[in-house]
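Case study 2.
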Amino acid sequence: MVRIDKKATRLYVLDTNVLLHDPASLYQFDEHEVVIPMTVLEELDKHKNGVREIARTARQVSRTLSDLTANVDLEQIRSGIPIPRLSGPAGRLRLLCYTDLKPLEPLEENPDNRILAEACRLRQERPDASVILITKDINLRVKAAALGVPVEDYLNDRAFDDSDAMLEGVRVYPDAGSELWNGLALDVSVERESHRVIYHLNGEIPAEWHTGMLVADSDDEGGFEAIVREASGQRARLELLTNYRHGASVWGVHAHDCRQNFTLNLLMDDDIDLVTIAGSAGTGKTFMTLAAAFQQTLDTKRFERIVFTRAPISMSEDIGFLPGTEEEKMSPWMGAFHDNMDNLLRDENGESSWDNGATRQLLGARVQIRSPGFMRGRTLNDTFLIIDEAQNFTPKQLKSLVTRAGRNTKIVCLGNVGQIDTPYLTANTCGMAALVQRFRDWPHAGHVTLKSVERSRLALAGEELL
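Prediction:
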């Protein structure tokens, strides 16, 4: 372990993958100095051509560097280019160029090893400073540690402090008894607003409460279940949930526990524009979402259409070119959609009408399957947008989808951070995690993590044992 002097000047040497991972990473090192080796600039130049996401990101980084170096003279470049900050002292950007750089023996000549050699050379020239290499490359971090070079992963964009946890959006108080606020110094008043029951609480509001979360006193039916509409300081406002367990249903679908009941309430709530649903495979994420989409599109006519999309990323090797239209190309990725449509359209005799040509033609006018790659620039009005496998999107990609929302549009993101198939994404850095964290306190968003696997006892055992 290489010790870093906290009082010494810090020089952060950025690897290419850090800039491609977060184009704004230059601004994330406070008042310290950011160093970009010439090898990194060459790597960015190689990536800038094309229409892929990595090419767009490389061009964005190049534009940022161009803006920073636009109005500076040679003396400022040598002493460090100021990096503006909203508050506090500005950091500095240094461009590192060695014309006589010697390769590290016995390492072969490649960009990663040249960056490592540049970091080692900088350490020799700046004994007064702590030179720290920042990279997302695990192998480069191991080699740097072996050579005694301080090295760190880029963690500034981690959505959560705990890498093994995700906001559940649910708080169950099993020991509260018949009154959720037993043991809390709260004044409670109840009022009815049309068909809604509202609880106004004043006093010691639990610190973990946030807008859009479920609070309940039991997982069993008949307990108190409410959504937090407001929670600030000494005041909170709760709204009692609709019970979808037996009486009311959503397109014939009933809830089995408080989390599923909360999910159906979020999906059917006109005040909630963004719903994020996490959970293991088989917890009913897609099934309940499609049921709510049909209910509000075909029955109540709140929306005009359902748009279903997901990241076309396979869990193993690609199967190659797919012929046909956009929907036909997306069809192999839509197995979950077709399976749930088959179940939702079954009658009392257990027969499904999903394979019926007339049914598909009828629903085809209302249900659209779209590739996320062709969503840029669109405005979706009167739409129920379902983003499946959201854990495979980067935060930037999910932002481009969420910002498609137009008038009267509801967006539902489904995912499981334990099933990420995209390289370089983790449970902390994926778009799903970022979306949950950033919208945590927005009053028109809600999140829930489902726990009970409904698919089968084998699926439940597989989730627990594998």
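Residues 315-319 have pLDDT under 50 and may be disordered.
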